[in-house]
Model the fold of this input.
Amino acid sequence: MKTLTILLAMAAPAAAFDHSDWEAVLRLRVNDLGEFDYRGLADDRERFDSYLARLAKTSPASDPDLFPLKAEQIAYWVNAYNALTVEGVLRAYPLRSVRKLDSFFKQRVFSVGGAVVSLDDIEHETLRKQFAEPRIHFALVCASVSCPRLAPFAFTGPKLEEQLDARARLFVSERRNVLADGGVRLSKIFDWFQEDFAVSGGVVAFIQGHGGPDLTGKKLRYRAYDWSLNRPGSRALSSDDEERRASQETRAP
Done:
């Protein structure tokens, strides 16, 4: 009987990484505009701290057997980036912008899978370097008004394709990100990461392929980025007309 028990344990697949604590935080703290309630989380961190502890112990790098699929790896790293960005803000809260903090994205101050990493390590060295997936740029949120709206759910391997496609289409559908009236003005994200969109035929092809207008032959210009903290009410207070307009719109999550 003991031998059978051991064999069954060896044959059983490893349990998937649990993102439910992060999901619970997002459901509670993200509003309809994708803004995040940092103050509320600062007063109620139990589930958030539980998730950070899980990230610190386990990652696709430290425990690859737990993440056999590419989708599971991407979901982990996107969630980790967003959660650790929130943690970085909370460590300095209150603040008006992450740009007010020295080397916010470059400092190696976060524990992930037994390693100490920076937000740039996750975004550029892991996600961008290891996965040819431009849609991550509409799932990663750097705590700023001009970022994509923070999703009110955690990304997961089984749902990743649907989730990334929905986030990309939502981003492209917003005037603040793709404005073709009286000349083309795009989010700076399309400028900063042009090379990543090459796998989709380039920026113009990506936008059209995700429900946006055909910009073929048109001169692309890029909008200024509002780095104000994405706290509740921040979009309505933006100095950018399109961000303020977006604050009046109701969007599906």
Notes: The chain has ten helices and five strands. Residues 14-246 form one domain. Confidence is low (pLDDT under 50) at residues 4-12.
